[in-house]
Amino acid sequence: MKKPKKFVRAAGGTVWQDDSLLEWDPNDYRIFCGDLGNDVTDEVLARVFGKFPSFQKAKVIRDARSNKTKGFGFVSFKDPTDFTRAMREMNGKYVGSRPIKLRKSNWKNRNIDEVKKRQKEKDVLLGKRR
Length: 130
Prior knowledge:
This protein is of the alpha+beta class and 130 residues long. Helix content is 26%, strand content 30%. The protein is built from three helices and eight strands, in the order E-E-E-H-E-E-H-E-E-E-H. The radius of gyration is 17 Å and the shape is globular. The protein starts with 7 loop residues before the first strand and ends with a helix.
């Protein structure tokens, strides 16, 4: 029996298990979409980016209590060419009532194994030993 994959993350000195990452393809090309207005939903984001053939998923991050957007979301693609085209064509375009700001998502960099690896490399460069 295969154990389900766990996503243990680290950021800002905190470590936690993030089950929301199980919804995403681990080998996708993901864009961070910033400066989203409260009028932008998952469906709106999906409609805007759905014109790219390898579009997979769109998610607007919302506050659990108020259900208002936190002002950012993510869009994923299977093909790096569509990812690059979307970054180039959609950055600064209006989505809802605001121009969207796009960046390559760094979600993989927060994986606990990556954080430990980078810390180890940093310690080696600084001459520290563990």
